[in-house]
């Protein structure tokens, strides 16, 4: 039973971090003329109206993109990300927020491939309709991990695989680790970006340890927690674990997060048990 709908959360602080990292990676890959493949394993609906009942009910975007979108960024990655948001909102009113496949479609060239899997029976057709006319695209109503087996490796042997599950089910962390190993075995040249929530610090650390424990080399951790750990309930922050990151990504994200971090923070002090900073960019496993 799939109860998660991303429309309740679109544009929140976790989306801002995730999509900023996505944009920075794609911008790097786009420097080469050679086509690339973008594979989105948990793609969502693609485009979200912030006026929808769901978005208005939680109003999470107001603490995320809502605080940020009029800002004149100094760092290149933040500027590029915000320019994409503006391209969807030309009337200077924040009405729409792009999901990860939409961000990819705004950035990629006609020769690049977009692949996506989305299981939800309502969100899948909304997503698929946005790609119906795009030549090099394959959008499937399929389980993410079955999709790795069916769709990887792509014909184009460079690209980005974004893995962004809702983490609603108990076995989702284990499924992800197994699925990542399968995908990596099939497509080791790709960059992988895996989103994870920080709800309870020990659970987040256990997840990182499990990914490091796969033995896959070259892992970069990028994390941003606008709320202190144990602030009460809910998600204090989130991270992206990036495998095979562009060599520029760590510095690009340090610049972007230095600028972004105070803007979404609800408390800029370190967390209550003084173990986690507001943001971090750290190499976990070397090349
Ligand atoms: C966090 S949302 C994705 C948001 C999207 N990546 C973005 O950034 O705009 C997670 C999505 O995964 C879908 N989903 C959940 N389990 C899945 C599975 N096993 N395979 C494919 N999609 C799944 C949900 O329906 C939901 O739309």
Characterization of the model:
The protein is an alpha/beta fold and 287 residues long. The chain has one domain: Vaccinia Virus protein VP39 (Rossmann fold). 38% of the residues lie in helices and 18% in strands. It has an eight-stranded mixed beta sheet with strand order 5-4-1-6-7-9-8-10, with helices on both faces. A two-stranded antiparallel sheet has the order 2-3. The radius of gyration is 18 Å and the shape is globular. About 2% of the residues have low confidence. It binds S-adenosylmethionine. S-adenosylmethionine (SAM) binds next to loops.
Element order: H for helix, E for strand: HEEHHHEHEHEHEHEHEEHE
Number of domains: 1
Bound molecules: S-adenosylmethionine
Structural class: alpha/beta
Number of DSSP helices?
A: 10
Q: Provide the gyration radius in Å.
A: 18 Å
Given as residue ranges, the uncertain stretches (5+ residues, pLDDT < 50) are 268-272
Mean of residue pLDDT values:
93
Spatial arrangement of strands, main beta sheet:
5-4-1-6-7-9-8-10
What is the CATH architecture term? Answer: 3-Layer(aba) Sandwich
How would you describe the shape? globular
Which percent bin holds the helix content? 25-40%
Q: Strand portion, in percent?
A: 15-25%
* CATH fold-level label: Rossmann fold
Summary tags:
two-stranded antiparallel sheet, Rossmann fold, binds S-adenosylmethionine, 18% strand
SSE topology:
Blueprint: H1 13-29, E1 37-40, E2 47-49, H2 53-58, H3 65-68, H4 76-88, E3 96-98, H5 100-107, E4 113-117, H6 123-131, E5 137-140, H7 144-151, E6 159-163, H8 172-186, E7 191-198, H9 201-212, E8 219-224, E9 237-243, H10 249-264, E10 279-285
Parallel strand pairs: 1-4, 1-6, 4-5, 6-7
Antiparallel strand pairs: 2-3, 7-9, 8-9, 8-10
Helix pairs in contact: 1-4, 1-5, 1-10, 7-8
Bound molecules: S-adenosylmethionine (SAM).
Residues 2, 4, 6, 18, 42-44, 99-100, 117-120, 123, 143-144, 164-166 line the site of S-adenosylmethionine.
């Amino acid at each position: 039973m799939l109860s998660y709908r991303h429309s309740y959360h679109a544009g929140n602080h976790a989306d801002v971090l995730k999509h900023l990292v996505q944009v920075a990676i794609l911008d790097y890959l786009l420097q080469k003329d050679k086509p690339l493949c973008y594979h989105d394993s948990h793609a969502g609906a693609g485009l979200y109206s912030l006026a929808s009942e769901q978005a208005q009910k939680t109003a999470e975007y107001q603490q995320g993109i809502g605080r940020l979108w009029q800002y004149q960024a100094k760092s290149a990655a933040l500027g590029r990300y915000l320019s994409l948001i503006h391209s969807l909102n030309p009337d200077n009113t924040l009405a729409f927020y792009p999901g990860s496949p939409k961000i990819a479609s705004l950035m990629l060239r006609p020769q690049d491939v977009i692949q996506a899997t989305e299981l939800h029976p309502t969100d899948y057709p909304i997503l698929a309709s946005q790609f119906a006319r795009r030549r090099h695209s394959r959008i499937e109503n399929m389980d993410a991990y079955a999709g790795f087996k069916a769709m990887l490796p792509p014909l184009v042997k460079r690209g980005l695989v974004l893995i962004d599950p809702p983490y609603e089910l108990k076995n989702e962390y284990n499924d992800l680790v197994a699925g990542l190993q399968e995908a990596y075995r099939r497509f080791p040249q790709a960059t992988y970006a895996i989103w994870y929530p920080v709800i309870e610090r020990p659970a987040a650390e256990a997840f990182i340890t499990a990914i490091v424990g796969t033995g896959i080399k070259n892992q970069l951790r990028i994390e941003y927690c606008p709320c202190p750990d144990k602030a009460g309930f809910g998600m204090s922050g989130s991270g992206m674990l990036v495998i095979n990151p562009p060599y520029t990504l760590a510095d690009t994200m340090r610049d972007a997060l230095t600028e972004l971090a105070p803007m979404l923070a609800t408390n800029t002090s370190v967390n209550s048990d003084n173990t986690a900073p507001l943001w971090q960019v750290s190499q976990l496993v070397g090349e």
